[in-house]
Write a structure and sequence with these properties.
The protein has about 220 residues and is mainly alpha-helical. Helix content is about 65%, strand content about 0%.
Length: about 220
């Protein structure tokens, strides 16, 4: 006989959580995902051992999906180098005050570029592997000065501002942009084989030399 005065509370069965819907990535996001996986595989295994299987595994995608976005391995490597170099350049620019006096911007940029060895070691290793190993049909290194064009243009713009403001003397801004970027690349490369070198002191010496060469005598 039911006891209406002391009925037990009804409990509902625990509900299982709804399955999480997988996020769909757009084309640009998917390309970035694959490129990030390529950087990871290159940094860990080197150029020759960075197989598509390892790249796909690092990116969390299938090999077939890589073929959907990149026609072949060389194309993937080229895009990875260009995108990674652009990200590093943008990171340096984001971390310094580009509105300051141009000699101060030069000094800060050189020191921040030197610090990439600490903050972005994987990206630098990946770039080095691609630059040294990616070849064209004639066996020449595929990545060359033409891939620096946006970087050179940004540096020329900075140098021209310094000339307009009077902090820099008159000089060929393209020649200086090539020299400036080559000096930064050489600094990072030198540290690869001379890791006992203090990069902060190297950056001090390099910035002093370059600024002395371009500063207005007035």
């Amino acid at each position: 006989m039911p006891n209406f005065g002391h009925s037990e509370p009804m409990t509902s069965a625990p509900q299982s959580p709804l399955p999480r819907r997988r996020q769909r990535l757009d084309e640009q996001q998917r390309r970035e995902q694959i490129i990030s996986g390529c950087v990871q595989a290159l940094a860990e295994h080197g150029y020759q051992q960075a197989s598509l299987a390892r790249i796909a595994d690092a990116a969390g995608v299938s090999k077939g999906l890589i073929w959907h976005y990149f026609s072949d391995r060389d194309t993937l490597m080229e895009h990875t180098a260009i995108v990674t170099a652009t990200r590093l350049r943008d990171q340096v620019a984001a971390d310094i005050d580009l509105t300051g006096a141009v000699p101060s911007v030069i000094e800060a940029a050189i020191h921040r570029a030197a610090d990439l060895k600490r903050t972005h070691p994987k990206e630098l290793r990946a770039l080095k592997h691609i630059a040294q190993n990616l070849r064209d049909a004639d066996g020449m290194q595929h990545l060359n000065q033409t891939h620096y064009e946006q970087t050179y243009q940004a540096q020329e713009q900075l140098f021209r501002r310094g000339q307009r403001e009077g902090s820099l003397r008159d000089f060929d801004t393209r020649v200086m942009a090539v020299t400036y970027q080559s000096a930064i690349d050489a600094m990072i490369e030198y540290h690869e084989s001379h890791n006992e070198t203090d990069l902060g002191e190297y950056a001090d010496a390099l910035s002093n030399l370059l600024i002395a060469a371009v500063r207005s005598p007035e």
